[in-house]
Amino acid sequence: MSRTPLHPTREQIELPMVLDCLSDPIRLAIVYQLAAQERVSSELCCGDFSGLGGKSNLAYHFAKLRECGLMQTRVAGTNRFMRLRREDLDARFPGLLDAVIGSAAKDAERLHLLSEGDVVEAD
Amino acid sequence: MSRTPLHPTREQIELPMVLDCLSDPIRLAIVYQLAAQERVSSELCCGDFSGLGGKSNLAYHFAKLRECGLMQTRVAGTNRFMRLRREDLDARFPGLLDAVIGSAAKDAERLHLLSEGDVVEAD
DNA sequence: TCAATTGTTCAATAATCGTTGAACATAGGA
DNA sequence: TCCTATGTTCAACGATTATTGAACAATTGA
């Protein structure tokens, strides 16, 4: 297991890869949940997303989200803490992340996204 | 050949399908070109995109863009005139289209998008 | 009427994608 | 030390995808 997963630099983040990543309902739900969490602690670990699928399937989607630059993973013990790369994304694609998250929020029910109260408590 | 291609209603437009559509470089280039054209005549026909690929491949991407609600096709003689469904998209997903097009513009060279001067003359 | 133009549809291909379960690696606690 | 918990990696699969060329349909103009 690699100790620190690889992440693209800010400049390496590509628009088509980001859009493709966000087009998957599970990955969109992950990003949405991370965005909702930003107001509390900004980080979540893999287990916090267990409502979205099985472990190996989530690991697959986490890898996609890392590779395209949407999120960053920090290893701490047996946990992986993940957060949105908001600064990098806002710098590369101003307004895009907020527009996607806002659009997802409008369709939260249709997209089966978590409701506002479901944020995980800060550690 | 169906006389008038099917389009989803405004409410039927789904965020994941829109993002997936925009994640393909050729389709992103088509949307970008349509957006650049909005200032001039708002409509383009299939032949205006011949720089982006072969006829049958473009027809495939046009169908995708129609099915997800990004653009509308109007049949006129042997031509199909296409335009962005900006009103519907802005109503469903405020700011999304502009954020994507703005992000694409920032990466125009990397994405091999047409330059500002390449708009087709109004008819 | 015949030929040319415009664009779609069809069939086939290779490549990629999402999902699953089993196996593995790592760290922490009894 | 052994057991457990947390995630990742691997191999397999079925499904979808983008691309190509050939065939087709509809309209226009000679």
How would you briefly describe this protein structure?
The structure is a homodimer of 123-residue chains. Chain A is of the alpha+beta class and 123 residues long.
Task: Please describe the topology of this protein.
Two copies of one chain form a homodimer.
Chain A: H1 15-22, H2 25-37, E1 44-45, H3 55-67, E2 71-76, E3 79-84, H4 86-92, H5 96-106
Antiparallel strand pairs in A: 1-3, 2-3
The structure holds a DNA duplex (30 and 30 nucleotides).
Domains of chain A (count)? 1
What is the C-alpha radius of gyration of chain A, as a whole number of Å? Answer: 14 Å
- Count helical runs of chain A: 5
**Low-pLDDT residue intervals, each spanning 5 or more residues of chain A:** none
Description:
Two copies of one chain form a homodimer. By secondary structure, chain A is α+β, with helices and mostly antiparallel strands. The relative contact order of chain A is 0.22. The first copy, chain A, has helices at residues 15-22, 25-37, 55-67, 86-92, 96-106, and strands at residues 44-45, 71-76, 79-84. The radius of gyration of chain A is 14 Å and the shape is globular. The first copy, chain A, has a single domain (12-106), classed as Winged helix-like DNA-binding domain superfamily/Winged helix DNA-binding domain (Arc Repressor Mutant, subunit A, Orthogonal Bundle), CATH 1.10.10.10. The model of chain A has no long low-confidence stretch (mean pLDDT 91). A three-stranded antiparallel beta sheet of chain A has the order 1-3-2. The A-B interface holds A 14-17, 19-20, 22-25, 28, 92-96, 98-100, 102-104, 106-107, 110-111 and B 14-17, 19-20, 22-25, 28, 92-96, 98-100, 102-104, 106-107, 110-111. The first copy, chain A, binds a DNA duplex (30 and 30 nucleotides) through helix 3.
